[in-house]
Amino acid sequence: MPGQRKRKRRQQELQQRTATRFAADAGRWEVLVETQDQSELRAHMRRLRAEPEQIDWSMTRVDTLCGRLVEPTTHRLSVFVPATAAVSAEDNERTTRQP
């Protein structure tokens, strides 16, 4: 098929950039909402989209933790917080708390 090699190479490059961008030492995933009701998750996402201050949707992740008989299925919306932003926020908290 024409273009298949080029398309495959582009997909691999995108996967590699994504893996590098969200590596463990690059930051952490912060949970915004965790619920067992999928409609509640969708409603929360609609509220986030409607807010004037938009989040970067390319840095979000929706996890569906499949349940069994003991635990029900859980849906989790997380946002990636880069390490530099996390460190600076923690430093700001420390400096404001100290007299």
Main sheet characteristics: 3 strands, antiparallel
What is the count of β-strands? 3
Q: Label the overall shape.
A: extended
- Spatial sequence of strands, sheet with the most strands: 1-3-2
Description of the structure:
- This protein has 99 residues and is an alpha+beta fold.
- It has helices spanning 4-21, 38-50, 83-97, and strands at 27-35, 60-65, 74-82.
- A 3-stranded antiparallel sheet has the order 1-3-2.
- A hairpin with an 8-residue loop joins strand 2 (60-65) and strand 3.
Notable features of this structure?
99 residues, 24% strand, 46% helix
Write the layout of secondary structure elements.
Elements: H1 4-21, E1 27-35, H2 38-50, E2 60-65, E3 74-82, H3 83-97
Antiparallel strand pairs: 1-3, 2-3
State the gist of this model:
The protein is an alpha+beta fold and 99 residues long. The chain has helices at residues 4-21, 38-50, 83-97; strands at 27-35, 60-65, 74-82.
